[in-house]
Amino acid sequence: MISMSPILIDGKTFLAITVELPKTTLLAVTAEKGYIMCGALDVGLLNRKLKGRGIIAARAVGVKTIDELLSAPLESVTEEAGKIGVTAGMTGRSAMLKMFDI
């Protein structure tokens, strides 16, 4: 099953996406310019193979819900995300607010 719902963070609207697959669940929260995702996101691939696209993204590992994704420290971020101040260790919530303001 796939579910999508708007969520508010500090009065700003984002889209939360959950994709339930056999034995795993994919989680993402997106803004117009970037997104955070669960451990399934391959940040290295985005930085190497898709560098030209300038993707602003970050990942948190070990999360099982959207709330956990927003609260967890980010494990890795793309180079483009770093350029707007998104860093490993910051919460997903903080990263989304940076992505909203660009």
Walk me through this protein's architecture.
The protein is α+β, with helices and mostly antiparallel strands. It has a single domain (2-100), classed as Hypothetical protein Ta1206 fold (2-Layer Sandwich), CATH 3.30.1980. The chain is 25% helix and 34% strand. The protein has four helices and six strands. It has helices at residues 43-48, 66-71, 79-83, 92-100; strands at residues 2-9, 12-21, 24-30, 34-37, 56-59, 76-77. It has a six-stranded mixed beta sheet with strand order 1-2-3-4-5-6. The chain is globular. The chain starts with a strand and ends with a helix. The mean pLDDT is 95.
Overall, the morphology is globular
CATH second-level architecture: 2-Layer Sandwich
Kindly report the name of the CATH homologous superfamily.
Hypothetical protein YunC
Percent strand? 25-35%
SS element count, helices: 4
Q: Provide the CATH topology.
A: Hypothetical protein Ta1206 fold
Rg over C-alpha atoms, rounded to the nearest angstrom: 13 Å
Counted up, domains total 1
> Average pLDDT, to the nearest integer?
95
Terminal-residue CA separation: 32 Å
Give me the strand/helix succession. EEEEHEHEHH
CATH class: Alpha Beta
- By DSSP, the count of extended strands is 6
Strand order of the largest sheet: 1-2-3-4-5-6
Please bin the fraction of helical residues.
Answer: 25-40%
Main sheet makeup: 6 strands, mixed
Structural class estimated from helices and strands = alpha+beta
The residue ranges in which pLDDT falls below 50 over 5 or more consecutive positions are none
